[in-house]
Structure formats: structure tokens, C-alpha cells
Amino acid sequence: MPEAVTLGELLIDFVSIEKDVSLAQLPSFAGTAGGAPANVAVGLARLGVSAGFIGKVGHDPFGEFLHRTLDAAGVDTQLLRVAPAARTTLAFVATRSDGHKDIAFYRNPGADMLLTAEEVDRGYLESARLLHFGSVSLSRSPAREATMHAALLAREAGLLVSYDPNWRPTLWDDPREARGRMWEAMSVAHVVHCADEEWEFITGASDFEAGARSILVEGPDLVVVTLGERGCYYDDGESRGELPGFQVEVQDPLGAGDAFVAAMLSQLMYAPRGQRLPEPKLREILTYANAAGALTCTRRGVIPSLPTADQIEQFLGPAAE
User: In angstroms, what CA-CA distances link 73 with 128, 168, 248, 308?
Assistant: First the structure.
């Protein structure tokens, strides 16, 4: 059984080859495996953590490709379900030089939406140390109920629960409902990660400290905001601050946040539960995560770019010793 489990969307990303060209201009696209929770599972596996993924794909060539991709990456796929009557979800992504992204999803319904609570295996979760999920799977039923069911099971079983509330406007009918659903999940998480571009929508605050305070009061122990090339912000209710990022030659920023989350969780999941980490140790972990995010930007395609532990340590050099 895997030590780390991620749950949510697994899909095909069609990523624009040219930067700063809108989807409406119909740029050329390259297809690749995607979906933030699946990327995190692969990122954890690359770092030597036994990882498994819970989700659903269609009974189609795209679903077969995604299944093979996770298997080849060493991710346990025994709970990767197949929806016989739905197609694998597709996402078209226009990349931008500033690291932001424009995304259009195609699922009507997509297979990832159809995961049910009954398909979440209690024993599989309870044998792990970590569950990570995001908010894309909260956008539609029955995946919404499956996600919350898994998160509550993990919390009750004493796992470290990690949550990434990512705002994808095209997946929701009503922004108010989206924000409400995102906040319902805050109380079951120990660690919450947000990207800076989504921060104000999710928290209603432009100030990191004020927004983090509103999240921490719901129950999480740690809030981390990724800031792209500027690094990250962290707040655990006592210690807070920013850590600078690393300057690299960027080929493709897509997936840097997922690499960051995987690297961060690969360290946090083994920390003593119920104890606040000393700030120097927390900053060390987040520096490691910043390095993982930076390295991912130096190559194209998310999964091929996710770094190994050796690559991160070599990148950090003396700082890693």
C-alpha cells in the first residue's frame, strides 16, 4: 500500500506551443498527461515516496495513455477507475510568460467528475500517511462527495491532509458557490497551498497575512502561497514570512506549483504529527520545494520535468548539506 495518496483529476493537457497566444487564436498544442493531484503523485514518486492515485478516466485512448503514464512513473493505480460511458477530460492551456495560465476544460461529463464515494477504499487510505486533493474535484457531483468522503476518512485515520484550492472559473456555474465549496474543505486540511494568482479570489484578501489568518482559523496548521519566480509565503499562526525563489531559464512554468507541493509534502509527511515545526526547519523544507518548482520550469511538459531528490540536492549544492 502507498504511503502517500492523491485524489482528483487526471486528464490530458493540450498546452500551447507558443507563449502569450490566447486560446481564441488557435495556437498549436502539444498533448501531455495532466491534472494537479496526479502530477503531485508522480512528483512524490520521483522523490522516492511510494504514491498512489485515486481518480477516474474514460474508456478511450486518452484514458489508456494516462493509465500507462502513471504506471511508468511508479504510481500505484489500483484505484484508478474507468468510466465506461464517459470520455477522459481534456484541458486546453495557453501558456504565458508571467507564469499565469488560461485554461478551457472539456468534460460533459468528463470521467474525472464521476468518481463516487463508494469507489474510495477505506483500507487503502487508512494504510497511508498522507492524502492530497484539490478543489477541481469539488466542482461537480459525485466527485465532490467522493473527495470530501476521502478527506474526512483520512483526517479521522490520522493522515496528514493536504489541500490545494485552485480556482478554475470555467468549471463552475457560480463563483459564489465555488468559493463556498472551496471553504468547506478547509476545515479537514492540515496543510493548505494556494497560488498567488488565486489568493484574492479564494480568501477575499490581497494581504497574505490577513488571508492566511482567515484560513488558519478554520483549522489548518500551515498555509503556503507560491509566488512564482518570487518564491513562497508561509504562515503557521506563529511563524510567517517569504522565501525567495531561484532564478532559472524558464522553458515552461506549467506544473511548477505541483512540483513544489510534492517536494514540500515529501518532507512534511514524515514530520511529527501535532507539533509545530521549528521555523528554521520549515524554511529548509520550503527552500527544497522552491528548488523543485524552479527545476520543473527548465523543461517542457509537467510529468517529464518533475525532479528527483538527487536533482534537487545537486541544484541546491552546499545549501542542501
Answer: 19, 27, 25, 12
Higher pLDDT, 101 or 3: 3
pLDDT in tens, 92-127: 988 777 666 778 899 889 999 999 999 999 999 999
Q: Strand 232-235 and strand 222-226: pairing?
A: antiparallel
- Angle of helix 36-46 relative to helix 256-268, nearest 10 degrees, comes to 50
Q: Which domains does the chain have, with CATH numbers?
A: 4-10+35-86+110-320 (3.40.1190.20)
Model pLDDT, residue 99: 61
Q: Over the stretch 253-289, which tens digit does the pLDDT of each residue have?
A: 888 999 999 999 999 999 988 789 999 999 999 999 9
Of 76, 164, 221, 258, which is the active-site residue? Answer: 258
**What single letter denotes the amino acid at residue 264?**
M
On the question of pLDDT at 223 being above 60, the answer is yes
289: left (phi over 0), alpha (psi -120 to 50) or beta: alpha
Is there a contact between 199 and 225 (Cβ–Cβ < 8 Å)? yes
pTM over 0.70: yes
Q: Could you tell me how far CA 76 lies from the centroid of its own chain? A: 17
Give the integer Cα–Cα distance in Å for 48 and 40: 13
Distinct helix (H) and strand (E) counts, the chain: 11, 13
Q: Is 258 a catalytic residue?
A: yes
φ and ψ at 94, to 5 degrees? Answer: -95, 115
DSSP 110: B
- C-alpha to C-alpha distance for 231 and 145, rounded to whole angstroms: 34
Q: CA Rg, the chain, in Å?
A: 18
